[in-house]
Amino acid sequence: MAAHNKPLQTASSGTFAPQHFNRDTDNYEYSEGKNGALFVAFKSSHEEFVFIDKSSTAGIKDYTVLDEKTINIPFISSDPVGTKSTLSAFLVDSSGNEYQKQGIRQSGVMDIVDIVNTGEVVTYSKPAGFMLRIKWQKPTGAGTVSAKAVIVQ
Hints:
By secondary structure, this protein is mainly beta. It has strands spanning about 20, 25-30, 35, 35-40, 45-55, 60-65, 70-75, 85-90, 100, 105, 110-115, 115, 120-125, 130-135, 145-150.
């Protein structure tokens, strides 16, 4: 039912109380605040997923959520001068077939890339029905590499 057809909340004195309409419950709810401002609760609009955590070896890891997602991956090195590596991304269908996925480099010169180098941030658009697979090479040098993705949508 539309909000304008719902009864407003009243205080114990019978006057209308501060309130807001909640579409999920389809009712008005009491509002609380302080110094003229309402209290608000922020919802996280993103999640994080660790593809690589301080690795000194080559590896593969899948992001298995099948919904459509936009995934931002900063690929970092513990020693940006001496430790280098690359990663590649693949879409994986329900039969296990891999398709190389291009990303958009967000750091430095924006470009479409197949291979990501340490120190770069890349965004991938993952369509529904696919997993995103990340493969990375063994780092050169004495350091490690990490990639903690921020997933939006």
